[in-house]
Amino acid sequence: MTNSIGPSTYGPMERMLASVDVLQTQYEVLQQQTTTGKISQSYAGLASISSQVLDLTAALSQGAAYSQNIGHAQGKASVMQDAMTQINDVANKMAATSLGLVGTSSSETIQSAANQAKLALQQIAALMNSKYAGDYVFAGADTSNPPVPLAETISGSGMFAQIGAQVASLANVPTIPSIGTVIANTVSIASSTAPGTTVFSGYLTGAGATASMVTVQISDSQRIVLDLPANRNVGATSDPGITGTGNAISDIMRSLSVIANSTGAIAANPDFAALMKDATQTLTSAAQTVSEEAGQVGLAQDAMTTAARAHASLKTLLDKQLSTLTDVDMASAISQLQAVNTQLQASYKVLSLARNLNLSSYL
After folding, report:
1. What is the predicted pLDDT for the residue at 2?
2. What is the pLDDT of residue 108?
3. By 3-state DSSP, what share of the chain in percent is helix, strand and coil, each rounded to 5?
């Protein structure tokens, strides 16, 4: 007689195998959940809530991008503020120095002031080339190139030499041309965009002179201006009452060049006092304009701080919502894993016994 595994044994065996497969799948899913803490590693595994998860993830990504923009812009603004504080200090100190030259005829005093002015001019030029994260912060959109290309040798620039030639005309008494014309000429020189005269980059004196202000997106509905090209006022207007270029930095550089080119030989000219008074007034006014620009940067910093806090709060909320949808209840998952493991081990034993029994029957 031949024994075989007939329909009466094959049906239950098949069901047992299918049940074990189901338990193995459940065990693998629960094991992954307890390891990662997530319900699923793919959107497909999240079934009906996948669209919600996608929306929350997209919102978090957008918020992270805004936060990154803000972080970079805050660093840039901090460098700007530090530079403008120093520029303001230099301009005010040199204004006091030039005022002290009014009525003096001391060659030593004038030479000392000239030396100070030359150093101050180099300092202003260097501050205009301040960088943050590899970018020149006062270069407009041309952040890869310095706004004052020859900052270290600015006293050898065309602007400096040409202003010096105008100042030297005071060696003639009376001044020829008139002191008013001399001052106007120094303004024209400092305002010039001509290569060989201007100290500013080709971009700033070319396309950058009329380019739109660079803005930073800090939220869906908010942009801030954080753009202070070296040769343009932004957020402030130079005092029209002074004989100036219309740009604070150019006015400071012009006045410092005037002082730096002063000598004892021109001190005897009565017009020297008028020249120094003009330098004093221009430096004082330009320092005020720089302070106003710093105030505008401060407002942008305040806006960024507020936006950063809002993004941080929203991130906390979105993270919680996303966690509710995607994170497992670890205690429950571990308990289920243990229960399924117990069932699975029992099923293995039953399956093993069933196979042995069927094999014995067959033999």
Report:
1. 46
2. 95
3. 70, 5, 25
